[in-house]
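Box 3.1. Reading complex inputs
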Amino acid sequence: MKRLLSLLLLCLAVPVSAQTGLPPAPYADRQLDDPQQETAARDLMEELRCLKCQSQSIADSNAPMAGDMRSQVRERIAAGETPEEVRNWLIERYGNWVSYNPPIDSAVTWPLWIAPIILLFAALWLARGRFRKPKDRE
Amino acid sequence: MIAETGLIALWLAAALALLQFALGAIGLRAERNDYFAAIRPVAVAQGLFVSLSFVLLIWLFLRSDMSVRLVVMNSASVKPLLYKFAGTWGNHEGSMLLWVTVMGLAGAFIALFERSLKRQTLVATLAAQAFISLGFYAFLLVSSNPFERMFPVPAEGQGLNPLLQDPGLAFHPPTLYFGYVGLSVAFSFAVGAMITRDVGAAFAKAMRPWVLGAWIFLTLGITAGSYWAYYELGWGGWWFWDPVENASLMPWLAATALLHSVTVLATRDGLRAWTLMLAVVAFSMSMIGTFLVRSGILTSVHAFAVDPERGSFILALLAIYIGGAMALFALRVGTVKEGSRFELVSREGALVANNLLLSVILALVFIGTLYPLLVEAVTGEKLSVGPPYFNLATGPLALLLAAVMAAGPLLRWRRDNPKALLNRISIPVLATAAALFALALFTTGMSILSLLGLALAAGVGIASFAPLWKRNLRRTPIHTYGMVIAHFGIAVALVGMASESSFTEERLVAAKPGDEITVNKWKLEFEAIEPLAGPNWTALEGRMTAQYGDGVLHEIKPQNRMFAAAQTQTSEAALLTRWNGQLYVVLGDGDSEGRWQVRVWWKPFVTLIWYGGILVALGGLLAMVGRLRRGYKQRKQREFAEAML
C-alpha cells in the first residue's frame, strides 16, 4: 500500500514539478562525455522499466518520467556509482518492478533462475532410454 | 441492414458448426456413413457463411457506417482507405471474427481437397475443427458482437491508434492469425488421429503441409512485427521480449519443433506420441497467444483492447480447449506406440535434440512471460522479467540449437558413425574457430553471447549448404533446397542480431539547423525544420542530408507526427539502408532556444535479421511446394497403376 501511495504521489509530482518550472532533467537526452560511462549507463537504462509506459525501458521511452530517470542514471554513473548500485537504489525506491533483470537472491524471483537448469534435466530425463544402443544392432 | 445480415450470417455459421460437430461425433460413434457424407457440405457451407459475415464487416468499415459501435470506436471517415480496411481486424471483435473466418475457410478447404486421409480420421478432424470454432462463435455472439448498433449515431468515429496506422501493421495480425489457425488445423488432425487411433506416416504426411503453412505465416508475421516495432516505435530496438512479442514467439517455437518431429513421423514412422504432444502444445500456445493478447492481461503497447470483463470468458475457453486437448492426449497416448527406434547419433537423434532444446526454450519463455502475473496474483508484488533474463536463459540454448542444426542434416537416418560426422562437419567447425579467433583479435567489448553467435553463424552458414555437397543439383528434391535455405536464413539472422547488439553506435544531440552530426563514417547536416500536413495528422519534418564517407549525399526527413483525433504523437524515423547496415534518425522535441533533440544510430548489418527471417520463410515455402508436388505425383502414379490393373 505504501509503495502504491508513493507511486501515486510520484505520478502527481511529475507534472507539478514541470509546472513550477524546475530545470528539466539535464542528462535525459544528453550523453556522458566518457564513452565507457555512457555505455554502462546505456546498458543499465535498457534494463530499467519506464514506470509510466507499457512495456518499455527508460532508454526507449519519450515519457517525461523516463527522461528524469535517464538523467538520474547518467548523473549517478558520472558521479562514480556502479550500475548495480544505481539499480539497487532504484529498486529500493520503486520495488523489483523497475528492473527487467529479476534478482537471483530474492524470495520471489529465484525460481526463475533455476528453471533453466531444472528444465534441461527434465529434457535429458525425457530422452533417457529412448535411444537404441549401438550394441543391440540386429 | 448490412450489420443485421452480417449478424444473421454469423449465427447461421455457428449453427452449421454445431451441426458439423454433431454429425462427426454421432457419426463416428454410430458409424453412420450417411453422416460422414453430409459433413463435407456442411463444413463448406459454414466456411461460406462466416466469410460472408466477415466481408460484410469489412464493407461496414469501408463505408464508415457510424451506426455500428465497432466502426465508431475503431475508425474515422477521414482515415485513408487502406486503414479503414485494416481497421476491420485492428480491434478485439474484428480480429476474433477474422480468426474464426480463417478457421471456417480452412475447414472448407480440408472438406474439399483432403484426399489422403482415412475417412474416419477426416470426419473426426472436421468435427474437432467445428468444436474449436464453436468456442469462438460463442465468444463473438455472447460477449463481443462486432455488429452491435449504436444510438444516437455519432457524426465521426474515434479513430484507430495512430501507431497502428502503418502498412506493416495492417497485415501483421492477419499473418499471425493464419499461422495460429494453421496450427489449430494441425491440432484437429492430431485429435482426429487420436480418436480413430490412426497415428502413422500417412497421417503425418497429411498434417505436414498445414504445419509448414502455419510455420511460414508465423515466421513472416514475427519478422514483419519485429521490423514494424523497429522502425515505427522510433527507438531502434527489434525485439524487447515484450509479453505480446513472446505470445507470438511461443507458437513459433512449438511449430518449429512440431515441423521437425512430424518429419520423423512421416519419413521414419518414429516419435508418434511426441509429435501428438507437440501438436497439442502448438495449438495451446496459439490459443494462449491469441487470448492473452486480446484479454489485455498482458498490458503492453499492443494491448489496444483492454477489457477485464471478457477475461473470465477467455480463461474458461482456454481451460476447455487446452484442458480438453491434454485430457484426450493423456487418455489416448497409452495406445500410441512410439514407433521405429533409432540410435543417439542419427538424423532422428539430432531432431530429438532440436525438439528438446526448442521445448526448453519455449518453457522458459512461457515461464518468464507468465511468472510475473502469477506472483502478482498470489503475493501482490509486481516484478518485471525482461531482456536480461530471456537473453541469458535462452541465448546459450539457442546457440546450442544452432550447432545441432548445422550437424543434423549431415547425419544419416537410424544410425550413423560419430567419426564420419566429425569428418563431414570439419570445414564448418574450422570456419567457426577462425571466426572466433578473428573476432577475439579485432573487436573489443563484445558480449560472450554475441561473440559466440557471430562465430557460430559462420560455421552454420557454411554447414547449411553441406547437404548439397557432391549431389546432382538438378535431381536434388525441392524440399531439400527448402531446408538448406531455411537453415541458411537462421545463420543470416544470427549475424544480424549479434552484429546489431555489439556494433551499434548511438548519438544523442540537441541540434540547431545548420549543425553537423557525425556517427561512425556518417556525416549528417541538419538543414531546417518544416511543418507538414497529412490526411489526419500534422507534422514537423526535419530536413537533413547524410553522407557515408565520401559517398553520395542522401536527403533524409525524420518526422514528428501529431494525430488530432487521438491526441497522440508519433515519430517517423528516417532510415537509410546500405549493404552494410542502416542509419536510423529520429527527430524529438524542440526547446525554447530553437534546438531539436536528434537521435542517430548506425546499426551495422541490422537488416540481416529480417532478411534472415524472410529466407527462413522462403525455405519453408520451397519445402511445402516440394512436398505437395511429390505427394501429388505419387498419388497420380498410384491412380495410374490402379487404372492399369
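In summary: Helices of chain A lie at 2-19, 35-45, 64-78, 83-94, 110-127.
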